[in-house]
Structures are given as structure tokens and as C-alpha cells.
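Narrative of activities, Objective 1.

The group set out to show that a structural description can be obtained from nothing but a protein's sequence at a throughput compatible with the screening campaign. Below is one input-output pair from the validation batch, recorded exactly as produced.
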Amino acid sequence: MTPSSPPRLAASIALALALTLSAGASAASLAPSSAAPLEPAAVASTAPASTPSPPAPSRPASASPTIASDLDPSPRRRHLVFANHYGLTLGLSQLPSFDLALFFGHALPTIGGGARRWAFGYQPTLTLGGADRYLGGFVTHRHHLTALSHGGLRPRLHLALGGGLAVFNLLGPRPAVAEIEAQVGYLFGRRLHARRLAGVIGLKARLGWNAASLEKAPLPQIGAFLGFVVR
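Output recorded for this entry:
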């Protein structure tokens, strides 16, 4: 071996040792990264899918306003209508008269759900007292054709309008008075939406003209009544 061999051998050994140490450091630096925990995105991707919350229940649409016809139990088909009321009537005399009236009618077909109900029929009335203008009028019987109404936007409003003749005496023929009569009343009672029977209270007015007795103008009567109606 030449004198220069030992230095070359030492340099080779030192170079090999340096390369070995650098390789170990690189391996040590790579080891923690391979054992690093999963990133949050990876963890989130492996988590079980959450169950979607049920949609909030939708609020039902507000009901339409109650129409007046909901309080009207009358059948929509044609049917019989009956009414009976009692009242006091005042006329030109200071002595009032007592009225007993009946109504026998037939319901008319309606147009539209909220329309008023009408019935048309015959109304006889027996009047006892001094409200009629003549002495023979102490006993008077009236015969009217009458239209009666209820329901609609004001289901408790009772209306009636009629006209006919008033005969003054049951014992013999007398001059008859042509007259008209109007009623405005209020229907009352329980469960009006389910029962056809209702009480009624109100006011009435008559206007009669006896042309046979040469009256110069029609004469009025006013009064109040109480009774019931089967709609």
C-alpha cells in the first residue's frame, strides 16, 4: 500500500458515514407525517350522514269567513214554511187591537249560497179591538198574500211584506179595505244553525185605504209582534 492510501481510506469512510446519517434523518422526518392523524375533511367524510330534519308542518290555509248561510238550516230544495205570531196594533182609536196571524208558504229556490231565503204564501189574520177605523172593525179578518224572508248576510233578520184585504165583520158583508203590511223582526233561539224552528220578535206597520167609504187618504197602523217561524 502506498503512503497515500490511509488518507483516502479515511475520507471514504467519512463520506459513507455522512451519507448514512443523512439517510436516517430523512427517514425520521418522513415517519411522523405518515403517522399524522386524518385531516378534518377526511374525518368528516367518513362520519355517518346526518338524518335530515323533517320539514316544518305547513300551517293550514285560513278558513274562509263564515258566510251568513252557515246559520241557515233550511233545506235548499223547496219546502213548506210556517209562521205564527201574536201582536198588538195601534190605529186612530185609543183602544188597541190584538192580532193572531198565521203564515202558510212555500220556499222559493235561491240563487247563490249566501242569498236570502224567500217564501211566498197566504197569511190570514184575526184582529180583535179598536185599532180599525169603524165600529164594525172590532172583529176584523185579513187575507194577505205575503213574502217572507230570512238568511243571507244577516241570518237573524226577519222580513215580511204582503198585501190584501181586511174585512170588518164576520156577520155580514162590509166594505173591504185594501192594505199592505210590512214586518221587520229578529230571529232568536238556540242552535239556529241546526234547527228550522226559531222565535221571532219585531215591529209591523199597515197602510189601508177604504175607497168604498170615500176615504181621502190611506190610514196607518203600527204594532209589535212575538211568535215563531219554521223556516
